[in-house]
Design brief:
This protein has about 325 residues and is of the alpha/beta class. It contains ten helices and 13 strands.
């Protein structure tokens, strides 16, 4: 078995705003594993500034993996536990090597017989830009929209109010993602304002790491809270359990590239279900390679909620896509 990798820079069609700043491009690494004339491809989808494994020795560890690709899986998993995005790429490449073509998790989805419902994502920007995106999603038939908030809450609140005037919560599910953009006092006010508008949930209202404050918010919130960044960097099973027991959120959100790939996501799902916490899966600006693998994995989990999967359309230089969006349904192109 042999392995190699190459670095790839994805360029946004338009600068994309979050409460952490504006994104112009997205670095990623493509891993290829070859054996007996067959090749498996995976994406080590590091997210600079957010990934737990965004560290100076990242590429060194990728080289190490390529040099030790023949070692057994349990050994590699232990060695890569602090590099979740590299493990994620390894999982994909091994699955692709096994199943061939563009398959990772063969199913009715990859046969083109079933689809995944996704939410429409609205990026931050001025009011005009955000409203333009919303109109586009509504015209395409989305019944669930997620808005990034936390930069200019007054303007964002007005947009949400306007949306609710036009569409009841039965007609349009609205989710918001603050990316830790509020402090605790601000979050308490915002949570009540969101409840008045019948908002489905808010992701990460305050910065990750403040377990006590987050637990207090979750205990009395009128708007369901979803943990996102809070899960990043929590490696050990006992620590994952402690986090869920302490905070007791209404939802958790799983980004495979950031939480230890498919194995890490499986572990979080198992624990969440033990504590009666709901969950859904989202992508994290992967290229179409990682996105394809995440979509195939997501389908196998049979979660009926709209999932937060991208469509690869944000970038001007993406790889060819195996996915196709029809209205709010993500299909695999057969």
């Amino acid at each position: 078995m042999e392995a190699n990798y190459f670095k790839y820079l994805l360029e946004f069609k338009r600068p994309s705003g979050t409460s952490r700043g504006v994104l112009l491009d997205k670095e990623t690494f493509i891993l290829e594993i070859s054996e007996n004339g067959k090749k498996g491809i995976g994406e080590c989808a590091i997210f600079r500034g957010l990934s737990f494994d965004d560290r100076p020795d990242y590429e060194e560890k990728l080289k190490w993996l390529c040099g030790n690709i023949d070692k057994n899986i349990s050994y590699l998993k232990e060695e890569l536990k602090e590099f979740p995005s590299i493990w994620f790429g390894y999982e994909q490449a091994i699955l692709n090597l096994k199943h061939g073509e563009n398959f990772y998790f063969p199913s009715e989805f990859t046969e083109g017989k079933a689809a995944i419902t996704i939410n429409g994502l609205i990026w931050m920007g001025d009011v005009g830009y955000m409203e333009e995106q919303i109109q586009d999603k509504l015209e395409k038939g989305f019944h669930c929209i997620k808005l990034k908030i936390g930069v200019d809450w007054n303007s964002e609140h007005v947009i949400l109010q306007k949306l609710r005037e036009k569409f009841s919560k039965d007609q349009l599910e609205l989710r918001v993602d603050a990316n830790g953009g509020f402090n605790k006092n601000e979050a308490e006010v915002v949570l009540n304002q969101l409840a008045d508008l019948g908002i489905h949930s808010i992701e990460q209202p305050i910065k990750a790491g403040n377990w006590k404050d987050m637990a207090e918010l979750c205990a009395k919130t009128p708007t369901p809270i979803a943990l996102d960044e809070e899960l990043i960097g929590i490696i050990d099973s006992s620590e994952k359990k402690k986090l869920l027991e302490t905070i007791q959120p209404q939802y958790i959100i799983l980004k495979p590239a950031l939480v230890g790939g498919f194995a890490g996501s499986d572990e979080w799902i198992s624990l969440a279900e033990q504590y009666h916490i709901d969950w859904w899966i989202t992508s994290a600006l992967e290229s179409n390679i990682g996105l394809n693998a995440i979509a195939q994995y997501t389908f196998t989990k049979k979660n009926p909620m709209p999932q937060g999967l991208g469509t690869g359309a944000l970038f001007i230089n993406n790889f060819e896509s195996d996915l196709e969006l029809r209205n709010e349904l993500l299909w695999f192109k057969t």
